[in-house]
Amino acid sequence: MDIESSHLNIDNQLKNTTDDALPNYLTSLKFQQSHLLADVRLALGYSAVLIAGATFYADYKLGWDATKYWTLWAVVAYFILNGALTYWVWGVEKGKIFTGEIGDTLISIASSVKKHKPIYNLQVQYGKKGEEPLTLKISAPFTRWFDSDGYFVATPFQQWLATEIPAVGKADPKKVDKWSGKGEGKVMDGQQVQGNADSSKTAGNGGARARNSKKGT
């Protein structure tokens, strides 16, 4: 594996571990998670697989001559479902790792990592039900919550979320860093404001162990 591929692999591992930790933290604060996006994705994917499997089985049992008409429509349906799945992943989900609500507040969070930049980026949309949502962008280096051995540490990650996302800070005020004075992800009149990222460091030498985590309070 070349160096470039190795760095991309580590960044993806760090992102995946962080992506998994975020919904777990929010649901522990009584956020109600919606699984609609994942359910639709799974339904489209499994439907395409079932069609392919049924077509293969029918052809095996009945032969090509008896099934060629149905095979044509099965192939068409398979490509339609795969096209719909591709659109759903890239056009609807758009990297969302959490959608849900707490009280009368709706929240949607999407994550991303740019190539060769071990910075975790979040785009957060939140607002009262029936109102235009506000959009918030925040970012921070993975080294903020991964230690030098590549292990995930929950507390600093949770403090970052509580400090930067108003809905999370309201649900977990003890984790808000009252001394930061940053408000990296401020929103003004519904406009997107880019949050300041901490200075970047090389993200976790032990990226291969990113899936393991230490307990946070």
Give an overview of the whole structure:
The protein is an alpha+beta fold and 217 residues long. It has 5 helices and 7 strands; from the N terminus they run αβααβββββααβ. The strands form 2 sheets. It has a 5-stranded antiparallel β-sheet with strand order 1-2-3-4-5, with helices on one face. A two-stranded parallel sheet has the order 6-7. A hairpin with a 5-residue loop joins strand 4 (119-128) and strand 5. Helix 2 (36-62) runs antiparallel to helix 3 (64-93). The longest helix is centred in the middle third of the chain and has 30 residues, at 64-93. The chain is elongated, with a radius of gyration of 22 Å. The two termini are 37 Å apart. The relative contact order is 0.16.
Indicate the mean pLDDT. 84
As laid out across the biggest beta sheet, the strand order is 1-2-3-4-5
Characterize the largest beta sheet: strand count, sense, and whether it forms a barrel: 5 strands, antiparallel
Determine the structural class based on helices, strands and strand pairing: alpha+beta
Q: How many DSSP helices?
A: 5
- Estimated radius of gyration: 22 Å
Beta-strand proportion: 15-25%
Alpha-carbon distance between the two ends? 37 Å
In terms of per-residue confidence, which ranges show pLDDT below 50 for 5 or more consecutive residues? 181-217
Tertiary shape = elongated
